[in-house]
Amino acid sequence: MEEKEIQRNMVEWCLPHDINLDGVEFKSMASGSHRITSDFIYFRKGSYFGLACFANMPVESELERGARMKSVGILSPSYTLLYRYMHFLENQVRHQLQCPGQYSPLEAFYEDKKAVLPPMGNGLVTACPTWSVTTINRCMHPEMKITHPAGCMSQFIQFFGEQIMVLWKFALLRKRLLIFSPPPVGVVCYRVYCCCCLANVSLPGIGVSVPELRPFFYINVADITALETEMSYVACTTEKIFEEKKELYDVYIDNQNVKTHRSHLQPLLRLNAADKEKYRKLTEQRQMLLYNQEVDGDCTSTEEDLFILFFMELNNRIFQILSEVAGSIDPTLTAEHVRAMGLDPQGDRSFLIDLLEVYGFDITLVIDNLCCP
């Protein structure tokens, strides 16, 4: 039955009409969506990012098998500003369910947006049903405003708890992270974004030789070929079959259960004392921020800013110390250095060895007289 549903997916309308939309019909409507009434979904299509809003309406029609399901979406070279069109897309998908074939609001939106959009390298401004190219916000971290009622970062922290510190290590090591969850998938796309935020570094020159941790957002079986060549990514799926395809990922996250089939990464699944202390500090800072917002009405700093800055400063401190040690006469990393990074000399040994290798630091790690080049 699932296969039949997937086969029925088709692009009904788009602007411009000659754009290649192969696979978008699967990306913009997550597998299993027939069980829910509405959702939103972020996805990748080539070098573009998409946001689609999905809705499901019961109808008395044998042809439509008692349900009419549609998605209306846009594409952009950047995912960071797509949220601005969420409300429009939600309204339009409901309009399309109630009045199928009335595309004039979508045409007007496309005409309005393409006039103010920067030209792409190939001159394309694409739409499915409306794709728009938006300006890219070039700041320290991407702007991706959140529509989840509890807030993206808050929900992410509450969902994973201390396990965030495990995800942080895998993200910093640029591993391939795949999150499985049944629909709705919108909030899971936010978890993809949050995982990418764990690996931010603002020190110049750091990470230039490592693969970028790229958000793929929602993926399905049509993306398997693309994933085979990816060195580093974070993605989510509603399709359980991916769990069996171990060659496509390093870390599999089934709801809150984080696991890896790679034996050398398994020590990183265990939380140590330093991990618990870092999580305690993060929780403390969140509580202080929420207190200030409630008591003083201070909304200058958001929970998202706090979250991103917490991990960026943590990462910067680690790489600052590694850079200083690597440039010294005696490039040896001691337990004292490791503790100054906020890491556990014993518990984070495996993580540090991987980190030195991934980022190309020529440093000797010496802890408790155990030497490892």
TrEMBL record:
Q: Which residues form the UDENN domain?
A: 1-373
Task: Output the Gene Ontology cellular-component terms.
Answer: cytoplasm
PROSITE patterns for this protein: DENN (PS50211)
Which residues, if any, are the signal sequence? Answer: none
The answer to whether the entry has keyword Coiled coil is: no
Q: Which GO terms describe its molecular function?
A: guanyl-nucleotide exchange factor activity
Listed A to Z, the keywords are: Guanine-nucleotide releasing factor
**Per UniProt, what is one Pfam family of this protein?**
DENND11
Q: Belongs to which family?
A: Belongs to the DENND11 family.
What protein name does the entry list?
Answer: DENN domain-containing protein 11
Which organism does this record belong to?
A: Sparus aurata (Gilthead sea bream)
The gene for this chain is DENND11
